[in-house]
Amino acid sequence: MVLSVRLLHPFGATLADEGHLVAPILEEAQIPHHIYDDPDGRVDFEHVKRFLTAVSTRTATAALGLEAARRYDAAQFHMLEYLAASGQNLRAAIDALTQHQVLLSKANVLRLEELPSKYLLRYLPPDPPRCWADFVIGMLTLASRRVVGIPPTVHSVPEVWFSHPRPDDDRAYRAFFGDGIVFNAPATGLILEPEWLDRPMQRANGRAWALLDRQLTEERRRVDGQTTQRVERLVVEAIEGGRLIALPDVARRLGASCSTLKRQLRREGESYTTLMDRVRRATAMRLLLQSDLSIAEVADRIGYADVSAFSRACKRWTGKSPVAYRHQG
Questions:
Q1: What percent of the chain has pLDDT over 90?
Q2: Domains within the chain, CATH numbers bracketed
């Protein structure tokens, strides 16, 4: 999963206000400073997790993710929130967010799911760091309040789900979300009532909606044309066809030399090794949860001839063996 570097800036701002320098944290997380400073920069989620670990060891802020969410303003959504606010209702806003979310993450990480008598706006990645899950859900909560014209201190969402355990001190959570918090939930996300989804926007504007949607669609096309996206498509296509594809073969398919391709990936905060690992992980997790293939067949599908090597990789990815992930994931 590759994310917009904009999503890291609120954490950096929190640290800066405490008097910490961001440069040592970027070095620890192996994120080039020029990528962090580039509004269009993107980083792999493995580097994001290293960044968050480095931040967490330095900050004195309780509930770091919620504090970062407060610092994530509408401008950083790169027109996404303005588009959402121009829609007819919150349902249209969520549709726009899920459609254009590639601008923030090169993976579909949000999905609106229908439950009995209610909806779940679900954050999909399994086992994200606590502060990151707090940040994403806090950011979505504040954004949903803004786009429907509810003051930020009003607890408008009836329930918030976190898959992680309740912290020893949950006062910061209750102050942010109200009392409707469920820890150890079956998923992480926001519970939304059907009537709330249909609530009209205060700033609904069909003309602005059409203009912003067109601009964001063009921006998505630009993002889709980036090297990382093109390489990832080829890797996914190869793995889904039951084979791995080497860097020289990818470079040849894209009409570039290996050194040029590596340089282009590095400029986007990516490497072929981490990209391949990410695609293999995503494919393995999907097959373990959504197919009847044996563990050996899943391992073979993503290029592991040895089941024990696949098991070690699965534990590195998820902290669980393939069997445990299939039964508990």
A1: 28
A2: 1-61 (no CATH), 66-218 (no CATH), 228-328 (1.10.10.60)
